[in-house]
Amino acid sequence: MCLGIPGRIVALVDEEAMLASVDVSGVRRTVDVVCVAEPGRPLAELIGAWVLVHVGFAMSVIDEEEAAATLKVLTEIGEAEGEIEAMRTGSVEPFHPSPAPLAS
After folding, report:
1. In angstroms, rounded to a whole number, what is the distance separating the alpha carbons of residues 90 and 41?
2. What does DSSP say about strands 27-32 and 50-54: parallel, antiparallel, or unpaired?
3. H/E segment holding residue 10
4. Contacts for 104 with CB less than 8 Å, ≥ 6 apart
5. Lowest mean pLDDT: which of 25-29, 30-34, 86-90?
6. Which of 1, 3, 50, 75 has the greatest number of beta carbons closer than 10 A?
C-alpha cells in the first residue's frame, strides 16, 4: 500500500524544477513541491515546513502536531516502516513530464 507520510522540508534542491529535500524519519529524499508552493512566494519559505509526501510529491503542508500524530498512527498500523523503506530504497521517485513539443 502506498500512503502519504509526513516529512520536513530541509533544503531546496532545484528551485526551477520545484524540487526540495525532505527528511522522513531520518531518510532524505528529493520530492516535487509544486503542489504546496504558493504562487508569487519564495520557495525558500517552505524550508522547515512539514508536508505530507505521496509518490514523490509534497501533497499538502501540515503542522508538526499533525505530522507526529500521523506517524504514530502509521507506526501503529504497521505501515510507517514500509513507507520509510520505500523512500530509503528509492522505489518512489517524483514524476517530471517532458515538455510538450512545439506545434509547427
Report:
1. 30
2. unpaired
3. strand 5-14
4. none
5. 86-90
6. 50
